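Hey, resending since the last one bounced:
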Amino acid sequence: MPQPAPPRRDRPARTHLQTALELAQVGMPVLPLRRGKVPFGNCPACTGQPPACGGRPNMKTPGPCRCPGPCHAWAAATADPSVIASPAWASAWREAVTVAYHPGGAGVTVVDLDDTAAVAWARKTLPATKVVPTTRGEHWIYRGAMRSVNAVRDGVDIKSTMAYARWLGPGTGTMTDLPDIVRALAVKEPSTVRSAPQGITVPARAGEGGCPHRTSTYLDRGIAMAEQRITEARSAIHTTVYRAFLAVLATHGRCGCLTEAHVTRLFTAAQAKGESPRHCTDAWTNARTTLGM
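The structure tokens again:
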């Protein structure tokens, strides 16, 4: 994550344009945000069908916008200083209230934690990484890009490719690689359920080397949190069970530390919410297939 030098006390604070240019120097694609902390609207030429830039109006396909001004939200982000400081962007910078960046374009993923409950969940569940305070919560930033998904759980959004995030400073801590447990949050349960034998299937204990967890506390806490997530679900029970299984497997499935007792606890929590043993087995099998186990 780039870390521009803080402004000296003996000179005026940087303008948004100056901040954007400093970020661009370290390869971060940036864009201005207007009042409401949202991107500027599309230019007149791009409001037609099809838009003049050749992209789709909602820019749901990857790729930068080629318009001279900041157009198409995240797709406007650029690290080219000649574009950022161009006359076509000048009026946007005069109106801008803050600077944003395209995380995926910078090769990072932002886990946006929108409240104290989400922050508490992350501190118990996710590997430590660079943290940037926000107005109500925190941004946890990992090295590596993935698809962006909103509301992967209460108060948690994932911002990476085809999304933007506000620049709120360099943050603290050391950025670490994007973990499987974050990637798993963005995976939806497959619509086609694979048939699987009845009963509980536990990952092979001798799979991929020694267990990286120094104590059993980390595993026990992960199982307890998965049980709680299933128990507290009020809707989308199938999806909640699948995602809980996926998160456990992403963190513990390859080291051989899961036992039948652990999996039984998860299945019991799911069945208490109305899932059948067959549904539990299918969700477990689908989660393993998703992770390539």
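The first helix runs from residue 16 to 25.

Sorry for the duplicate.
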